[in-house]
Automatic annotation (TrEMBL):
Skewed-composition ranges (Polar residues): 1-20
UniProt xrefs under Gene3D superfamilies: Vaccinia Virus protein VP39
GO BP, sorted A to Z: methylation
EC number: 2.1.1.222, 2.1.1.64
GO molecular function: 2-polyprenyl-6-hydroxyphenol methylase activity; 3-demethylubiquinol 3-O-methyltransferase activity
Key words of the record: Methyltransferase, S-adenosyl-L-methionine, Transferase
InterPro entries: Methyltransf_11 (IPR013216), SAM-dependent_MTases_sf (IPR029063)
Sections of the chain in a coiled coil: none
Enzyme class: transferase
Keyword Methyltransferase carried by entry: yes
Domain Methyltransferase type: 55-146
Keyword hit for Membrane: no
Entry protein name: Class I SAM-dependent methyltransferase
Lineage: Bacteria, Bacillati, Actinomycetota, Actinomycetes, Pseudonocardiales
Length: 243
């Protein structure tokens, strides 16, 4: 666990900083990065979800749960922050089930065909129990997909804008990354991948998405073309060989 932080404190921070305005602005497809870099990869990795049961672990305002439901999935969304789960319930169709719970302390659930955990693990101080809970919620041979801010290229946009290049002084240590919304926590890539292997998963694919140059030209975000700001991993559960 990251020093001086608890899951409860992180959840409270998300609860108090998630304004109605910010949730409305991202209610359809998420923010710019999710629309252009994260969502397309997640949907490709999940494949055809029609009739499949999917757990959206750390669903936030529920936008990705709604995307999955529109594609025919039977969706359950889990979110610990009260303001976010309330908004998700308000916006979603009746066929999406929502549960307010800390991912590290999930109640017993029926196994899902897939669990997707998008942009969540790097925001959880005690993240290993949360990852374990996600893996345990997948049926054997099912799919666990997670997306995080790329540990090697955190704060990419701001650093590039200031210096015209990416700069990083520390990588191997674990530390807090403060932001205007809620804190993230840096950990090396190996921490996440080794934990996936330790949980008996076989990594199918690792994706470091880059922004389409034409989209970048229109938005003025050159850094996302040259370097990946996100890391997305798809793993099959119940595979003793791990990696």
């Amino acid at each position: 666990m990251t020093s001086a932080w608890t899951n409860e404190a992180a959840i409270q921070q998300w609860d108090t900083t998630s304004t109605r305005e910010s949730m409305e602005a991202t209610a359809e497809r998420g923010d710019f990065a999710k629309q252009h870099l994260v969502n397309p990869v997640l949907l490709r990795l999940l494949g055809d979800v029609r009739g499949r049961t999917v757990l959206d672990a750390g669903c936030g305002n529920g936008y990705f749960s709604r995307i999955l439901a529109a594609r025919g999935a039977e969706v359950t969304g889990v979110e610990p922050a009260g303001s976010l789960i309330s908004f998700a319930r308000e916006k979603s169709a009746e066929d999406i089930s929502y549960l307010q719970a800390d991912l590290a302390q999930l109640p017993e659930l029926e196994p899902f065909d897939a669990v997707v955990c998008s942009m969540v693990l790097m925001a959880i101080p005690d993240w290993k129990p949360a990852m374990r809970a996600c893996v345990e919620a997948v049926r054997p041979g099912g799919l666990f997909v997670f997306a995080i801010v790329h540990p090697a290229f955190e704060e990419l946009f701001g650093t590039w804008r200031e210096h015209g290049e990416y700069r990083r002084k520390e990588y191997l240590a674990e530390y807090e990354i403060a932001s205007g919304h809620a804190a993230d926590f840096h950990r090396p890539i190996s921490a996440y991948l080794n934990e996936v292997a330790a949980l008996g998963c076989r990594v199918r694919e690792v994706v470091e998405p880059g922004l389409d140059p034409e989209v970048a030209k229109a938005s003025g975000i050159e850094s996302y073309v040259r370097m990946p700001n996100f890391l997305i991993v798809a793993a099959e559960t119940g595979c003793p060989s791990g990696l």
